[in-house]
Specification:
It is a single chain. The chain is an all-alpha fold and 211 residues long. It is 69% helix and 0% strand. Helix 2 runs antiparallel to helix 3. The radius of gyration is 28 Å and the shape is elongated. It starts with a helix and ends with a helix.
Length: 211
Amino acid sequence: MSTASVSTQVTAQVSSLRRGIIETLKWVSVVIFAVLVLVVLWQVFARQVLSQPSTWSTTVAQYMLVWLTLFSMAFVFAERGHVAVDIVSRLAPPAVQKILAILVELAVALFAGLGLVWGGIRGVALTWGQSIPGLSLTIGHMYLALPVCGAIVFVVAILDLIDAARFGVLPSLEPPASDVVPAPAIPRQSADAGPHSRHRESGEKTDSTEV
């Protein structure tokens, strides 16, 4: 089975669950980014225009940046858009490529389950009662992004593990580059083209007539 046919088959079998995860993560990331921009703009406006620096905007912007990073990471992982060094896998035979793909997804699932989910839950439990100055939230509330994103990455890794066991190397699910409208081609003039090209042509014809 060729790589193109495998790519088409895997893309066609993307579950509705995965599509829902991708769309949800995309819009959550957009909303977080919009909130981050508004908070930073308010911080600058309050400091430079009102001369009354905000007491909460810096802290909120820092945590929003962390949330944006985690949810964007989960979004790109769900689309299989992360940069991968796959030179060894591509040079290996198909059977070895399948084994390597399974091992990669197992490693990601273990990291998401142990590092993000379990470690995130412990971090939330330890900081749940630590209040944030100027806000009615605690540090534990802000750390909730760790186990939430970890659980999403774990579910996606399990879906990829199933596909890797069936198909081997998994293609990216990002929109293909052909969907992008190409830029209009700019006509190029030849080296002889110019405002006096017609005069040169007429001169050449006159010379040939005289001869």
